[in-house]
Amino acid sequence: MITVKNAESYLRSKIGDDTDDINKVWQTFKAFCKEPVEGEEDREILFQCGVYNFTGEELFHLDFVRQFTVYEENGYSRMEQLHCEFLFNPTDELRKLETGEWSMDYDDIEDFFTHIENLQEFKIPLTSKPIKSEVYQEEV
Prior knowledge:
By secondary structure, the protein is α+β, with helices and mostly antiparallel strands. 28% of the residues lie in helices and 35% in strands.
């Protein structure tokens, strides 16, 4: 069983070494999002992108996120997010793209994935090569 604690290593092992292959990472991420995680009540998936200065340098971020709400003995403990993030030099075309879409706003996960795959914010970055990609998990 996948747990919040081992989710990052589980997803990394599924992706393998092709972390710059956005389409492969997306397909793997989608399959991972359909798998149950111990203690997870609702599947909260986020697709986000835009030009941000999070790293001290303006870059275009393309980010697939699965969010986990962690409960312990006394109830709510914290939230953690597992990211598949791609960074790009911000071209004029990429600068026009910005969105944040949550799966909870859709009837089911397949509707959400179909919607994302039809967004220009998803399609356009697929034609570019990221300068960096990373899979990481953090407490939020």
